[in-house]
Amino acid sequence: MAAEVTIVVGATSGIGYALTKELLQSTNDKVMALGRRIECFKDMQVERLIPYKIDLSCSEQIDSLINEMQKDEIVVNKLVYCAGLAPITRIGEIDYKTIQETYTINTFSFLYICNKLWQYNLIKEGSSIVALSSIVAECYNYSQCVYGSSKIALNYIVKNLARVFVKNKVRVNALELGNVDTPMLRSLHPSEEQLSKCALGLIPLKRVTDEVLRLLSDESSHMTGSIITFDSGYLINK
Q1: Has this prediction a pTM greater than 0.85?
Q2: Angle at alpha carbon of residue 133, lines to 127 and 119, rounded to 5°
Q3: Closest Cα to residue 112, out of 173, 59, 67?
Q4: What pLDDT sits at residue 238?
Q5: Which of 116, 122, 169, 171 would be a feasible disulfide site paired with 224, CB 3.0-4.6 Å?
């Protein structure tokens, strides 16, 4: 039986990198790891790992990916979209470039990739798609207008894709994350006050990858179009 194919978009850092490692350790899937810095995989000598260098801000590179998948007859069983930008920009300080870059990575590229996979029948019946969203979509933080609104748009896209893709029993869900204990978050040196808003503490990275794997599996076979809040109690404590 041929191995299933999982695509991780934004696989070269943070949650995407951790998820790629977890998929290789806990499944027999072939993992297409998409990102800009694929050199991070140079020490991973795993035959099932397919690193693919891509700049998501360039639609032509996404087109090339789809063309190569068609040529090699690669059909997807699972897709996880982890790519994202999170600029801190207050009203009055926002420039157009920041808006464009953030929406391109956080929203447009996800829609474009899913659209192309559907258009060319490159996603198998019964597949699962998971997009990583953020509770900032629920918080209306004055310094994260661009980021938060891009995640609101992402959530809307997830629900729309779910409605269309259900025809082929393809499930589409989003995981709306709070503060995850990643090296990037630690590097920002969050204050005790900020950390205290996570009523149950920072979310361990392993808990996030476990939840993504659950959403990819048959355990969530009756879930689609869902925006799942996974925030360690942040929203009830804001």
Answers
A1: yes
A2: 40
A3: 59
A4: 64
A5: 171
Distance from CA of residue 178 to its chain's centroid?
14
Look up residue 118 and give its two tokens: 């559907």
Closest CA to 29 of 216, 230, 227, 235: 216
CA distance 4 to 59: 26
Tell me, what DSSP letter sits at residue 115?
A: H
Instruction: Select from 198, 85, 200 the least CA-distant residue to 139.
Output: 198
Tokens, residue 207: 């808990």
d(CA 172, CA 129): 5
Nearest to 31 by CA among 84, 74, 83: 74
Nearest to 123 by CA among 70, 53, 175, 64: 70
Residue that has been written with the tokens 């258009």 in this structure: 119
Beta strands in the chain (DSSP E): 5-9, 30-35, 49-53, 76-81, 123-134, 171-177, 180-181, 203-204, 227-230
Residues ≥6 apart with Cβ < 8 Å to 187: none
SS3 label, residue 84: coil
- Please say whether the beta carbons of 211 and 230 come within 8 A: yes
* 171-177 sheet: strands from edge to edge: 49-53, 30-35, 5-9, 76-81, 123-134, 171-177, 227-230
Mean pLDDT, residues 64-82 taken together: 96
In the chain, the percentage of residues whose pLDDT exceeds 90 is: 72
CA angle 79, 81, 85 (to 5 degrees): 170
